Every structure is written in structure tokens, then in C-alpha cells.
Amino acid sequence: MEILGIDIGGTGIKGAVVNTDTGEMTTERFRLPTPEKARPEEVAATVKELVAHFNYHGPVGTGFPAVVQKGVVRTAANIHKTWIGLDASSLFSEATGCPFYVVNDADAAGLAEMSFGAGRGQMGVVMMITIGTGIGTALFVDGILVPNTELGHIEIRGKDAETRSSDAARQRKRLSWQAWAKRLNEHLERLENLFWPDLFILGGGVSKSADKFVPYFNLRTRVVIAQLLNQAGIVGAALYARTKFS
Ligand code: BGC
User: How many domains does the chain have?
Assistant: First the structure.
């Protein structure tokens, strides 16, 4: 089935039509900048523009950078606070006339990697980590997703961990790759001691530069780099809609 997948991120809102049987995008990826404050009405207007660009009328899957339960946004670490309690699925459906299925962005990326990327066929405990404006996590047990794990927000050295180890933190503090790798290693080490994963999959834009920081890691758990790179969020969102739409 062909489904439009959308990935709402801190800086960009990206979409493409995805063949959910193969995980391939059947159109070019289209990107619009995320409106400055990422307020609900503005984001909905951008989503509407994106759907119109594809002249698309079917079900839409959307990755969203927050806890999402049955379409309702529950947290707002890097988005406007007025999202909390809002039914994002209904908001986008009303704006576009298409049925929307909204899922946490890291969970979407994890679904794509488990089906078509670095996690394909991996049993046991797999943890996908997306590194960007925030740190997103997706936990899989024998291929089944445990949604909304939010392990980017554990406390490390008295701080919300993602404010030290995200890619945004690396850029903001102008950290060297080695200094940042040390912070990320500390975060991952904490997660491996809590969950004993069999595999970490690292995604997000910065995973393209994995050779600059992964060599500094000192972890027990095997680390691999996501294979779908910046397509994972879009592909996974479409896969999510596929499972919900009937
Ligand atoms: C949010 C998560 C999201 C992650 C990556 C975090 O700040 O709390 O829900 O998955 O950023 O966007």
C-alpha cells in the first residue's frame, strides 16, 4: 500500500509517499521549514501545505517529537507548550481532510529500522536512539515496540540528559567530537545498565558522522548505525499508519 509519511522535526517538516511493503519512497522527499515557535495552528498549516504538494487524499502517518497517546500529545520538550493535551490526529485531519495517525518520531524511526534497516530480523531487546534537537528512544522487545519510552529525559549529573548529549547540545556548546562522545557514551551507558539491550541503533542526522564519535565509545552493547538515515522517520510514520488504517 502507498501511504504518505510525514516527519515533524525541530527544524523541518518532511514528507514522501512510501510503499509500505518495500519501505521505499515512491516520490521525492519534500521539506518545509518548521514554523519558528512550532505552534499547533502554524504546524497544521504547514502540514496542510505538504499534503497539498503531493495532491494526496489517503491515510497519513506522522512522526511527532513528543509523547503521543492515541493521537493526543502529552509532552512538549522542544515544541510549543500549547501542544500538551491537544489531539494532533484530529487537528491535522481537520486541516487536510485526510485521516491522520500520529506516533512519536523516534518510535516511527525505530519501526522503519526494524522492518527495513539495521534492526531487520533482530530479536531480543533493541534500542533505537535518534540524535537531533533532542534525544529520542524506541524500545523493541522481540520486534514489538514499547511506545513512548522517552529515555532522552533521564537525569544525568542533575540535568535532563538530552540537554547534554543531543546534537543540538554539541553544536550549542561547540563541543569537540571527543568531548561530546564522552557525554553520549555516559547516556548510553546508563541505558545499557538499566535495560541490558542486545543492540543500540543510532540514528538522526549526526549518525552520518558516526566515524567521528563512535570510536570514542566504551560500551558493552553492540552499536550499529541506522541505515535509512533521514528517511527513517518518514518511512516509519507511513508504516505506523498502515497498521492503524483499515
Ligand atoms: C522528546 C521525544 C522525541 C525526541 C526526539 C525529545 O525531546 O521528548 O518525544 O522523540 O525529543 O525528537
Answer: 2
Q: Is 104 in the pocket of ligand 1 (CB under 6 A)?
A: yes
Contact 26/17 with Cβ under 8 angstroms? Answer: yes
CB distance 137 to ligand 1 below 6 Å: no
Burial class for 183, CB neighbours closer than 10 Å (0-12, 13-18, 19+): buried
Find out whether the beta carbon of 162 lies less than 6 Å from any atom of ligand 1. Answer: yes
pLDDT at 246 over 80: no
207 closest CA partner among 168, 148, 167: 167
In this structure, the answer to whether residues 45 and 58 fall within a common structural domain is yes
User: Ligand 1 within 6 A of 117 CB?
Assistant: no
Q: Distance of alpha carbon 239 from its chain centroid, rounded?
A: 13
Ligand 1 atom 12 nearest Cα? 65
Domain span including residue 86:
2-107+231-245
Q: How far apart are CA 93 and CA 159, in angstroms?
A: 37
DSSP H or E run through 108 = helix 105-116
Q: Which residue has the CA at smallest separation from atom 11 of ligand 1? A: 134
Segment holding 64, helix H or strand E: strand 60-64
Tens digits of residue pLDDT in 124-163? 999 999 999 999 999 999 999 999 999 999 999 999 999 9
| Average pLDDT rounded to a whole number, residues 32-56 | 97
